Give the backbone structure.
Amino acid sequence: MLKYLNHGISTPIAIGIIVVLIFVVGGGILAYQHYYIAESEDKLTSEEITQRLSECENIQDYSDQNVCYENLAIEANDPSICPDYSKDCVMKIAINQKDITICEKEYDKAWCMVIFPKLLQESSYRQNQQCYIQPIPIDIGYRHGAQSEYDYSYPNVYDNGVNDYPEDIVPESAFRHILSIPFNVSNAILRVYDSRNNTGLIRLIKYSSLNNSSELVGDIISKTGGNWGGIYMPIAISKDDSHILFKAQMGSPGAGGGSVTMGYAYLSLGSVKYDDCGYLDPEKIANQVYFYDNFSKALFYSEEKNVPVSEKPGPYYNSAIKFINIITAETKTLLEESNTIYEIIDIDEKLGVVNFKSCPWQAYRFSCPDSDRSRSIVLP
């Protein structure tokens, strides 16, 4: 090489080229050593894993021992080391290795499809311990052929099943189509799917027959308390197609959980709200709600300061009747009288009134006697 350089290139230039080559080659070697050798040094050897396993086995406290195994499993990227009690160990390894199949071997496939991409893409979700935990199963009834309060169980007359189960978002191997709810203005359908393994999870898809397209709206998971659990199920679309209305499907309660309900809720499709793990977060209206004007308005009860506070856990006193405009989120109080509770009989949209009973408040009385006369007021 030097021979050819001497013929056509001056000595200073040749020296400069050689120096540059030395830096380039040398830098490549250093980079290789830094990234690849360091990576191999960070990876636990089989001897180190054996030693760490022995250390975990020698820990006397059961909780501390499980923590030791979990930390080792995550550091070694080995799901087989995860303790049985751990709810998030395997998922963390799946995220570390960016391998959804690790998740699917341990957890429900539908849930893996929902949460795995969220954990990969959003660092705030990865920092939230709750995002790694599979939701509690809730028996929502539709899989057993039970009819809902609002009869949109699939199959129905609103949905002919064309382009059902798009493989990229709701494959039939993981999900079950349970509801089809028509939009009012457009020709779209809200398709609702739950997990085939009865995980506390539903996936909402907006299907348009105009172009045979399926758009992911989002996912809803079950919520649980000490002795209760439930999940919001869609029941209708508001008359202008702007909101989805929900009713909670409550699971079998534990001791003291029978009076707990998540009630009714709504979700704006124009400004969708999400929780801290990226699931849809419908906003609760109240425990008991009376919809009218094609699900664009509603009446509901609330307990106000016009009566003594009810004991908890337990039901509330219906001491006020309130109104909400689902589309605009406007709310106002229709009735609130001193030491009075209310019971709505029905809504008569033809006459434009709500019929109700009212009676004096008494401790532990949550409804009015049948002998009480009904009253009515004009609907907003």
In short: Helices lie at 2-8, 11-42, 46-57, 62-76, 89-97, 100-106, 109-121, 123-126.
